[in-house]
UniProtKB/TrEMBL annotation:
GO terms for cellular component: cytoplasm. This is Amidohydrolase. The keyword Flavoprotein does not apply. Residues 27-328 form the Amidohydrolase-related domain. InterPro entries: ACMSD, Amidohydro-rel, Metal_Hydrolase. One of its GO terms (molecular function) is carboxy-lyase activity. Keywords: Hydrolase, Lyase. It comes from Chitinophaga rupis.
Length: 339
């Protein structure tokens, strides 16, 4: 038998609270729907209702006519339930006039119904300019875009790089070995296309350079496994918020440290999940709401360890589930949420 096969049934008997529905209506700020322009939103709303998800933020809005179609479909069929973020088309960056055009497109997208901007991890990893050079996240050719978001009072949700172990040797010491073994495309060399720390630092420099713009650092900025470091960044960068999409397993293995972090930064943490698999939300609710011990995560390649609940108090839960998102994302109907 090998490690991938080993999957022992726990003999531990402790109280279990399997939550298929959140205690409060919540806003998922990190979701992807790829076909929202023509999708039957009614079917999606039913699935959301079962989870108690009041509002879904679709980060894959695109731009131009694609974005407008999505915003129109939302306005017509479920205006209180969905928010859409625009995306930048980085093609041609470096050509004269690129920045001006990108800013104009963003303004138009916001007029058409976008309530935020999402930057995919391609920026910093695979976006090259017209001379073939990697575009760093803090490239000055992007400054006007970040400033425009501040001016329009829309947040920028940004996913930079990936977990650091993807840059490290894939050996018996690598904590993401199983993920790399099952997803070989995720492995990178130490400098492919730049060292991990360099890409992450570009992101932090960019946040600091644009203090009037609100940034949501996706996936806890890949520091969910080092909350002391993330706390330092929270202090240094007051315009940075974080969401915990795809990293709840990191929080669930350190419930005491994580709860302390949530207490301290309760006004700057948002609920995010990323991939749309409704059954997986139960793990998130359980880590946030319960005091359950030693329960499994839903994907062994993210967490071969077991999880523990943080049992956050109601006041913090409400902030995480909806109050913080209502504060920074414009255009969300507030009537669906308690005080
Ligand atoms: Zn995502």
């Amino acid at each position: 038998m090998d490690f991938e096969k080993y999957d022992p049934v726990s003999t531990l008997k402790v109280p279990e609270h399997i939550l298929t529905r959140a205690k409060y209506p919540f806003i998922d700020v990190h979701n992807h729907q790829w076909n929202m322009g023509s999708q039957d939103l009614g079917a999606l709303v039913k699935e959301m209702d079962a989870l108690h998800m009041q509002v879904m933020v679709n980060l894959s809005g695109g731009n131009g006519s694609q974005l407008k179609q999505q915003a129109d479909n939302i306005r017509e069929h479920a205006p209180k339930r969905f928010i859409v973020f625009a995306n930048i088309d980085f093609d041609g960056i470096g050509q004269p006039g690129w920045t001006t055009k990108a800013v104009q497109q963003l303004e138009q997208d916001v007029k058409n119904g976008a309530n935020g901007l999402k930057i995919f991890k391609t920026l910093g990893l695979s976006v090259n300019d017209n001379t073939g050079k990697r575009v760093p996240i803090d490239d000055p050719r992007l400054d006007a875009i970040w400033d425009k978001c501040g001016e329009l009072k829309i947040p920028v949700l940004i996913h930079a790089a990936d977990p650091a172990p993807f840059w490290e040797p894939m050996d018996e010491k690598n904590e993401r070995w199983l993920e790399l073994a099952s997803h070989p495309g995720r492995q990178r060399g130490p400098k492919n296309p730049a060292p991990w720390a360099q890409i992450i630092e570009e992101q932090h420099r960019m946040f600091k350079k644009h203090p009037k713009t609100t940034f949501i650092n996706a996936h806890f900025g890949w520091y969910a496994n080092d909350l002391a470091k993330l706390a330092e960044l929270m202090e240094e960068i007051p315009n940075m918020y974080v969401e915990f999409g795809a990293v709840i397993a990191e929080l669930g293995r350190q419930p005491i440290m994580a709860r302390t972090f949530f207490e301290k930064y309760q006004d700057r943490i948002l609920f995010g999940k990323d991939s749309w698999v409704p059954s997986e939300y139960a793990t998130y609710f359980r880590v946030l709401e319960t005091a359950d011990e030693y329960f499994p995560y839903h994907k062994k390649y993210h967490a071969f360890w077991r999880m523990y609940g943080m049992q956050l108090p109601d006041g913090i839960l409400k902030k995480i589930y909806y109050k913080n998102a209502l504060k920074i994302i414009p255009g969300i109907d507030k009537s669906g949420f308690p005080d």
